[in-house]
Structures are given as C-alpha cells and as structure tokens.
Amino acid sequence: MRQRCWYTYIMTNPRATVLYVGMTGDLARRVAEHKQRSGDGFTARFNATRLVLWEAHATPQDAIAREKQLKGWTRERKLALIRESNELLGDLADDL
Question: Does residue 15 lie in a domain region?
C-alpha cells in the first residue's frame, strides 16, 4: 500500500509580485484549481497560478506546521528558499 503524502507549496503570479503559501493532500489537484482560478480567493484575485516550490511531508500535522512556519517568514526569506531549487522561479506544475 502506498503511503499518502502531504504537501506545502508556494504559488506566485507571472511577475512574482505576490507569494501564496498553502498545504494540501493532493498537490496536482490543488495546483490545477489555482491555475483555473476557481473561487474568488487570494490566488484568483492576484493571478497566483505558478507553482514555484513544493515540499512533501509524511503527516498533515508536519505540513501544517511547515505552512505556518513559511507564512511567518519575510518575503525575502521565502524567495531565497525558492531560489535554492528554482533559481528562475519557473512553473513546476509541468513536473507533477
């Protein structure tokens, strides 16, 4: 039986002027929802449709704790983390 993963992720808009931190149990589905701009939330309003970072976690509690940690970081610190693995802030959604 395959173990379920939980994810934290960061989305941005095409000009990288906003950063959105979230968590989910189904990364591909959640990113697709952001890309479709479903709903009237933050990501739809600010066109945050590019996945620039994701991390896998063993439990939802771990993912929630990481999400809260990332949300407490400054924009500069988040961008530094993203650039460690995605220097050009490319959309990682194609790799899912």
Answer: yes
pLDDT at 1: 58
Name which of 10, 1, 4, 21 is nearest 60 in CA terms.
Answer: 4
30: tokens are 């959640």
Q: Give the strands of the sheet with 19-24, arranged side by side.
A: 19-24, 6-12, 50-57
Q: Is residue 57 one of the residues assigned to a domain?
A: yes
1 assigned to some structural domain? no
Tell me the pLDDT tens digit for each residue of 31-46. Answer: 999 999 887 788 889 9
CA distance linking residue 45 with residue 79, whole number of Å = 21
Which domain covers residue 82, as residue numbers? 6-95
22 within 8 A of 61, measured Cβ to Cβ = no
